[in-house]
Write a structure and sequence with these properties.
With 280 residues, the chain is of the alpha+beta class. The protein has a single domain, classed as Metallo-beta-lactamase, Chain A. Helix content is 20%, strand content 26%. The strands form four sheets. It has a six-stranded mixed sheet with strand order 8-9-10-11-13-14, with no helix packed on it. It has a five-stranded mixed sheet with strand order 1-2-3-4-5, with no helix packed on it. A four-stranded mixed sheet has the order 12-17-16-15, with helices on one face. Strand 9 and strand 10 form a beta hairpin. Helix 5 runs antiparallel to helix 6. It is globular and about 50 Å long.
Length: 280
């Protein structure tokens, strides 16, 4: 299904991937009793109305983290599950101007013109805590929350053991941003080592961007990069993202494909490598 603001496609029997104008992604998972929406895009156009065309089930919203391109429809639903450490940033990131600015900076040339009235206004959200180990039971589908601090302090991923899938938000991907105020590289590596303990339960990750799944091997790949950053043996390629300078652990092309054939990459700053350099 497609509208002015959204596109959707089935990726599993009961799972629909929905993408927004800036390429950001969320997932509608339909159980027997209710549906779960993992992430909420940028809030340009009514995602709530689009989802209602896809399912008649009651919908619960859970956020992988609090960044601008993942929280938009939380203002439509008026409530969301989120890790407690990411609640404060939810409102800092959620103002309409920030969300509109992000989408205008990212969506393709020649795409639809976005008007101010297309932006979901920021309103109060009832936040409900979800933490590591919590299980969301949709009826026939169960998703386990795993805390992976790094990209943000409260970043969560969700494991469906039956489908052998993790919905990973921005926790680990080809352009993992570790310089925007989340955990240090040292702490991120610890979180990834713990995540790697779920390798026997998962084959692929579906993330917040990119359009395709990636193999679980991206996790040990990222662990290795963290170790190299800490040892000072990574490529440390100067770059930037959204106008902010960073170092990339591996050389890549403009589409974030590593020249050495690896999958994971990490953008970081030297003042956020070690625990002692930052404060929670």
């Amino acid at each position: 299904m497609e509208s002015k603001f959204f596109k959707s496609r089935k990726i599993l029997d009961r799972v629909t991937l929905i993408s927004g104008l800036a390429g950001e992604q969320c997932y509608l998972i339909e159980g027997e009793e209710k549906a779960l929406l993992i992430d909420a895009l940028s809030g340009i156009g009514s995602l709530k109305a689009f989802v209602r065309e896809l399912t008649d089930l009651p919908v619960e919203l859970v956020l992988t983290h609090n960044h601008v391109d993942h929280i938009g429809a939380a203002f439509e639903y008026g409530k969301a599950l989120i890790h407690p450490k990411d609640i404060p940033g939810l409102y800092e990131m959620g103002d309409a101007a920030s969300r509109l600015g992000f989408v205008n900076s990212q969506h393709r040339e020649g795409g639809p013109v976005i008007r101010p009235e297309d932006v979901v206004p920021a309103t109060p959200i009832r936040t409900y805590p979800i933490e590591d180990g919590d299980v969301l039971d949709l009826g026939g589908i169960r998703l386990e929350a795993i805390h992976v601090p790094g990209h943000t302090w409260g970043s969560l991923v969700f494991l469906d053991r039956a489908a052998r899938v993790i919905y990973s938000g921005d926790a680990v991907n080809a352009n993992t941003l570790l310089f925007l105020g989340g955990a240090s590289i040292e702490e991120y590596r610890e979180a990834l080592i713990r995540l790697n303990g779920f390798a026997e339960a998962c084959d692929v990750l579906w993330g917040g961007h990119g359009g395709m799944s990636v193999p679980f091997s991206i996790v040990p790949d990222a662990i290795e990069l963290c170790g190299e950053i800490m040892a000072g043996t990574d490529d440390a390629v100067p770059g930037d993202f959204l106008g902010r300078p960073a170092l990339y652990a591996r050389k890549k092309d403009p589409f974030f494909r590593r020249f050495d054939g690896g999958i994971a990459n990490i953008a970081y700053s030297r003042d956020r490598i070690w625990k002692h350099q930052i404060r929670k």
